[in-house]
């Protein structure tokens, strides 16, 4: 696997993302939603003269955050392969002297980079609050890093799922719908924790519950099990995407 090839493909993908009107619409929409949500939560806490509250924990477990992340990841990843299929450029790409893994990793890196850009306004809000709040909301740098580390790992998983669904069809809308269904299914596992009474079942659900992972990390609790879960599951979906591309190359 060539680093130079990956870099060339990565730049190609980044150019493709930022010339897409969908990307700018998603960027603007996320900035408005995240900004409005953060402002609303901050105003509510200030009205209650909050002390000792972790605004990160409240923000990253709110319905606004989960609505945004569940919607944005299928939208920013849906065109990755579907657009190549529609335009007929995938055949040219797969017959070039590049490997399937290089194509998959370059697309993953580009979409994930854009995902991080989408959450940059939220990170700047937290930095601003940390600088000027005089610790009113119990903000510390370790908690900030843990929280956005969790946001990043969540993005890695959801983006890899979006790439997989995009590789399965040339229709971007179908790719987005199936991608949303899969990420929502993973999120829905968190709901089952309150519906079961078995300790063993609850332990399994806690391992897969993205909501509880976010709740723990944004509360300053570090656990290696979610890290293993996100890295391994991300690799699984990237591997499946690579296999889809390999099958397409063989058919061609």
What is the secondary structure topology, with strand pairs?
Layout: H1 3-18, H2 21-47, H3 55-60, H4 63-77, H5 79-87, H6 89-95, H7 100-118, H8 120-132, H9 141-168, H10 172-188, H11 199-208, H12 210-218, H13 224-251
Which keywords apply here?
globular, 0% strand, single chain, 252 residues, mainly alpha
- The rounded distance between the terminal residues' Cα atoms is 22 Å
- Helical segment count: 13
Q: Which H/E pattern describes the elements? A: HHHHHHHHHHHHH
- How many E-type strands? 0
Unreliable runs, pLDDT <50, ≥5 residues? none
What is the total domain count? Answer: 1
Whole-angstrom Rg: 19 Å
Structural class by SSE content? mainly alpha
How would you describe the overall organization of this protein?
This protein has 252 residues and is an all-alpha fold. The protein has one domain. It has 13 helices and no strands. The protein has helices at residues 3-18, 21-47, 55-60, 63-77, 79-87, 89-95, 100-118, 120-132, 141-168, 172-188, 199-208, 210-218, 224-251. Helix 5 (79-87) runs parallel beside helix 9 (141-168) and helix 7 crosses helix 13. The longest helix has 28 residues, at 141-168. The radius of gyration is 19 Å and the shape is globular.
């Amino acid at each position: 696997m060539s680093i130079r090839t990956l870099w060339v493909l990565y730049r190609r993908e980044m150019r493709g993302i930022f010339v897409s009107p969908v990307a700018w619409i998603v960027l603007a929409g996320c900035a408005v939603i995240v900004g409005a949500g953060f402002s609303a939560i901050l105003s509510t806490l200030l009205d209650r003269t909050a002390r000792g509250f972790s605004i990160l924990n409240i923000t990253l477990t709110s319905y606004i955050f989960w609505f945004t992340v569940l919607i944005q990841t299928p939208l920013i990843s849906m065109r990755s392969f579907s657009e190549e299929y529609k335009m007929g450029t995938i055949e040219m790409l797969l017959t070039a002297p590049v490997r399937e893994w290089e194509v998959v990793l370059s697309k993953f890196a580009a979409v994930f980079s854009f995902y991080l850009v989408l959450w940059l306004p939220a990170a700047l809000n937290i930095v601003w609050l940390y600088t000027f709040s005089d610790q009113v909301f119990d903000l510390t740098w370790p908690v900030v890093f843990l929280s956005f580390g969790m946001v990043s790992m969540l993005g890695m998983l959801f983006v890899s799922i979006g790439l997989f669904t995009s590789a399965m069809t040339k229709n971007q809308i179908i790719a987005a719908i199936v991608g949303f269904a899969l990420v929502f299914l993973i999120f829905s596992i968190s709901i089952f924790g309150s519906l079961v009474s078995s300790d063993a079942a609850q332990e399994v659900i806690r391992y897969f519950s993205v909501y509880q992972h976010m709740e723990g990390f944004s509360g300053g609790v570090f656990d290696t099990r979610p890290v293993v879960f996100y890295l391994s599951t991300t690799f699984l979906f990237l591997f499946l995407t690579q296999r889809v591309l390999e099958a397409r190359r063989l058919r061609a």
